[in-house]
Design a protein that fits this description.
This protein is an alpha/beta fold and 217 residues long. It has 10 helices and 6 strands, in the order βαβαβαβαβαβααααα. Helix content is 54%, strand content 13%. Strands 2-1-3-4-5-6 form a 6-stranded parallel beta sheet, with helices on both faces.
Length: 217
Amino acid sequence: MSISILIAEDHAIVREGLRSLIEKQPDMEIVCEAEDGRTAVQRVREFLPDLVIMDITMPNLNGVEATRQIINEFPQVKVIALSIHSNRRFVADMLGAGATGYILKECLFDELVQAIQAVAAGESYLSARIMGIVVEDYIKRLTTVADSPLSSLTSREREVLQLIAEGNTTKQIALELHVSTKTIEANRRQIMEKLDVHSIAELTKYAIREGLTSLEH
């Protein structure tokens, strides 16, 4: 069965070029076109294509908002962003809106075909440059997490925090870790100082929020 496709692009010459190339693929069919985002949303309602090739900067309603509306109303419809923009803000906005593919207009047509086939099969597809941006942002988020107060705790302090949050007494923790109760008390004071919390209840909430433990053990 052919993959039914909607092309949303405000430049007629680009739409015509895409249509001409895509329709040469035996497993793909262009069912409609749209010159702006608002029309794209309407066309999806009318034709319910499998996939939308979405430009980002379009009049009336941009590709990001059009994608958000389409995915919200028709979550089964896949969207591939086809854009000149490799700016991380555009990438983040489109992926956040629900696009599962993002390729650049400078790419070869073969890559667009690969993207269509991958996304239609339920996978994601990002151009190499876009993938680099996504990975870089992911690493930055990991670094931000690493800078959280929890990262200031030693491995032993995290262990003690979990045991405290799970309701163990100082004596029970000391026995479990084969240390003195004074050591555990010192650990607890140090943990409270580092996390800037002032009660066992706050410590417990913090541990649960950070995923060190849960309400169900």
